């Protein structure tokens, strides 16, 4: 580069460098201010969270809590509320909802239930589930009626925390919404309504036939909830054309431990689908001592099943059924012509392992 060209370009390069340095300094200042703002927000949320905990412990009055909540920014308010273990303490949700009734943050979320964005509606429903307010209950019901996407599912889950019977009946009339994300998610949604919802869920199952995924969600909720009064309706699903429904029915009957359904489960041991046979064998093992002779005979026959999982569940079920079951295992281990039956019988007799429902 010639001296004349260097002299010509030097001012331009110098000014460009100064502009670059100014831009970099501006970015650094912005980032520094953002970090300070985040730290202030975290501190403010912690202070409000401590105030919420003090109120729940009886160390702070409702008036002081309202002043702190009303003066907080919305994001900080919800960060503080969401840090509390409110899932395990419904009484806390009610207490906070009563103390903070009419707060501007909940009002904002109730308006957001009608937002154009499904994501924003879902966030609003999740937040409103944290505080049980009558106005929020009404808004969530209305949103549940209007929408069919993930936000409606979030509204239903929030109303489940409220133990809202009206929302439950509305939900049971909309099976597509319950199983929108599959039977397992539908089971979780129904379970959110608590044990008081089980009679209504049982009525819905008894009114079938229904969509298979919806039936599975209902059956899982009833079995996990221990609602033995639904055992007859569940046992009917052992004849369902859907294999997964039959598996769910056998699993639920095992959880319910209803001896009067042993005959239904014995019949399921001959099901053409091996997962049903395996689950029926496991379920029969949950009844405890003094089983019927037909149960022992049916499980012993399954020790020669072609599928290893069926043989194993049958063997461990026999072990769980007391002296009669263990005697059947010993006879099989000593005298069966089937080497696989002898092997699984010996394993069950010598193992302390207990199989859970697959």
Helix- and strand-based class? mainly alpha
Which H/E pattern describes the elements?
A: HHHHHHHHHHHHHHHHHHHHH
- Low-confidence segments, given as residue ranges, are 352-358
Distance between the termini: 79 Å
The helix count comes to 21
Mean pLDDT: 88
Largest sheet: none
How many separate domains? 3
Based on CA atoms alone, the radius of gyration comes out at 31 Å
* Strands, count: 0
**Approximate strand percentage:** under 5%
The backbone outline, from C-alpha atoms, is: elongated
Helical proportion, percent range: over 70%
What is the topological layout?
Elements: H1 3-56, H2 62-70, H3 74-82, H4 90-99, H5 104-112, H6 118-128, H7 134-146, H8 150-161, H9 165-172, H10 175-178, H11 183-191, H12 198-206, H13 212-225, H14 231-236, H15 243-256, H16 262-268, H17 274-284, H18 293-301, H19 308-320, H20 323-335, H21 339-350
Q: What are the key terms here?
A:
21 helices; 3 domains; 358 residues; Leucine-rich Repeat Variant; disordered C terminus; mainly alpha; elongated
Characterization of the model:
The chain is mostly helical and 358 residues long. The protein folds into 3 domains: 70-162, no CATH class; 165-256, Leucine-rich Repeat Variant (Alpha Horseshoe), CATH 1.25.10; 271-358, Alpha Horseshoe (Leucine-rich Repeat Variant), CATH 1.25.10. The chain contains 21 helices and no strands. The protein has helices at 3-56, 62-70, 74-82, 90-99, 104-112, 118-128, 134-146, 150-161, 165-172, 175-178, 183-191, 198-206, 212-225, 231-236, 243-256, 262-268, 274-284, 293-301, 308-320, 323-335, 339-350. Helix 12 (198-206) runs antiparallel to helix 13, helix 16 (262-268) packs antiparallel against helix 17 (274-284) and helix 17 runs parallel beside helix 19. The chain is elongated. The N and C termini lie far apart (79 Å). The model is unreliable at 352-358 (pLDDT under 50).
């Amino acid at each position: 580069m010639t001296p004349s060209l260097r002299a010509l370009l030097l001012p331009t390069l110098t000014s460009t460098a100064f502009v670059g340095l100014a831009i970099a300094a501006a970015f650094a200042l912005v980032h520094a201010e953002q970090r300070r703002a985040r730290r202030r927000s975290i501190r403010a949320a912690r202070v409000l969270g401590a105030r919420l905990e003090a109120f729940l412990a009886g160390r702070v009055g409702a008036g002081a809590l309202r002043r702190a909540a009303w003066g907080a920014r919305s994001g900080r308010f919800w960060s503080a509320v969401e840090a509390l273990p409110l899932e395990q303490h419904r009484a806390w949700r009610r207490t906070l909802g009563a103390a903070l009734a009419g707060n501007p943050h909940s009002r904002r979320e109730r308006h957001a239930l009608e937002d154009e964005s499904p994501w924003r509606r879902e966030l609003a429903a999740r937040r409103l589930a944290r505080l049980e307010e009558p106005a929020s209950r009404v808004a969530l019901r209305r949103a549940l009626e209007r929408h069919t996407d993930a936000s409606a599912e979030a509204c239903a889950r929030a109303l489940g925390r409220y133990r809202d019977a009206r929302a439950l009946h509305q939900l049971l009339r909309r099976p597509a919404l319950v199983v929108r994300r599959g039977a397992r998610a539908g089971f979780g949604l129904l379970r959110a309504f608590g044990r008081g919802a089980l009679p209504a869920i049982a009525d819905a199952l008894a009114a079938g036939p229904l969509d298979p995924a919806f039936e599975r969600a209902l059956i899982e909720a009833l079995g996990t909830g221990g609602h033995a009064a639904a055992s007859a309706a569940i046992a009917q699903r052992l004849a369902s054309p859907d294999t997964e429904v039959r598996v769910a029915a056998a699993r639920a009957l095992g959880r319910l431990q209803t001896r009067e359904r042993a005959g239904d489960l014995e019949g399921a041991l001959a099901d053409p689908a091996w997962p049903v046979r395996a689950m029926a064998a496991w379920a029969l093992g949950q009844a405890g001592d003094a089983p019927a002779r037909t149960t022992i005979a049916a499980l012993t026959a399954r020790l020669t099943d072609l599928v290893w999982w069926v043989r194993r569940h049958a063997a461990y079920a026999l072990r769980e059924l007391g002296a009669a079951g263990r005697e059947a295992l010993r006879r099989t281990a000593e005298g069966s012509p089937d080497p696989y039956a002898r092997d699984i019988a010996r394993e069950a007799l010598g193992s302390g392992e207990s199989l859970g429902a697959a």
